[in-house]
Amino acid sequence: MPAPVFAILRPMGPDSDGQVPLVRSQADAPNPMPNDGELFIRNAFNDDPRLGCELLFRQYFAPLCSHVVRYVYNRQLAEDLVADLFYTFYTKELYKQVTGSYRAYLYQAARNRAYNSLRWELGRQEVLPDHLDHPDLDTTQPDRLLQQDELYRALEHAVQQLPAQRQRVFLLSRFEGKSYKEIAQEMGISPKTVENHLLRATSTVRQLLRNQRLISWSLLLITLLF
Amino acid sequence: MQPSKELIFTYFAGQATSVQQKAIGEWLAQSGSRELYFQWLDEWERSFPQYTPDVAHHLEGFRQRLDSPSEIHAPPLWPIETTRQHLWRPGRWVAAASVGLALLAGGWVFRNALFYRTIVTNRYQLRSLELPDGSTVALNSNSNLRIPRLGYGWLSRNVLLTGDAVFSVKHLPDDQPFVVQALDGLAVEVLGTEFSVRSRTDQAEVVLKRGKVNLHYTVADQPEQQLLMKPGDRVTLDGRGALRRHIQADTTQFAEWRYRLFSFNNTPLRDVAHQIQTVFGVTVQLTDPALARRTLTGTIRAGSSDELAEALAELLGLRVSHRDQKLVFSTASETQLTQ
User: Which of A100, B86, B94, B322 has its CA at 20 to 30 Å from residue A114's CA atom?
Assistant: First the structure.
């Protein structure tokens, strides 16, 4: 984490003399600065933001897609979402506002995009496009992380619960981006059956999400006691 | 306590027990855990990728996209300029003029509406508005505020409120008073300040945050009485006409209904119901006394009482039904019995 946070957390000792922030941040650097292997990229951003962005892209595009796809279950969509994230990151110069590691920022922003995309898919048009990438997300409550973890696991569970053939159709279509025709050929069933399977699979997953109500409310952490 | 990397990986894979999940939740609440969390998430994603996208191909696309200037100046989805031009089309003016005429004619018929502007919110709405003198009002759901159209600001500043509102009153050079007429014969005379008024059929409440207000009230046909409030004072008037003054040192929770954020920490459902009641102005009824003792922890942002009620019902496995302005919570089994 960056210096300012530490400056707030740590009570000012008698030895502090007013002009500390900068000095302090350097003194604390090994501690709050995460071991993120991003020093090189950080320097690149200072010289040439575009190069920095490309380096980040190279390093994080694949794992970010892999993470986003857990939410959206669609490779194409995942790749578009992540590519778009990098694009906004560069054009809106959001890298200037990132206080923690780029990694934490990118993962959080990618998750938010995935989350909103799911929400949008469910027909709740409450997308918040501009806030999505805002590094203020650093201050997001920890509950939100848990909630988002919960969501992708719930989705995975729902997909696992599908009958074997339907699951296969669903994954081939959404994950591999194959057409009805290709899937029908591959599995030796009619395209009509493929369509049917897909409709049912989608509605099962949707139903699960509605039931979980993870999408519509920012319900963060709930424990119930009697 | 910091969980081990193995535990976090187990958790990412969805195999952690609920106790472990709780521990991780507590860890995440500590500062500095976030970076480590994402570091491990990244490692986990790299160790167990769902698939491997073609990075080189996408990087190429990314570069091209950055190079093409047309996209940087892409037109917005709804071009603002052209809609502005639309307003100037003569057809619009004719339409606007006829609507205006119709409104005038309507105004002649409904004179009350002509002399008073009434702002009404339904149970989903929150509104904030600026009055002609620069004072601002935040109006809660199920509320209604009547403002005189003529003479407001130079003859008098009298408004009539039913429901909840927060006023931030601007002081005028001629010391003109601002008066909120509430029900129950209560009037709040303001001398430049910020305060909230609740004026529902069964109770009235005034909370003063800054400045000074003077309450005028009548109880049981007695002559009008006055009470001067100081910041932090909360005055309630119940259905029987009893006036009470409470001193509230902490005004941070002042008119929290404006933010629609509900935080519960082992809060019994009875108190949750009470919060819904104060925030949305609807009555909440719990059919089973055992229900009132169940507790809830977490934070919910809910735009309307319905939304919140629905969320609670689902979480606690309850049934919720609406009867007029009333929300009724009952246990699922109980409803089965009555059916």
Answer: A100
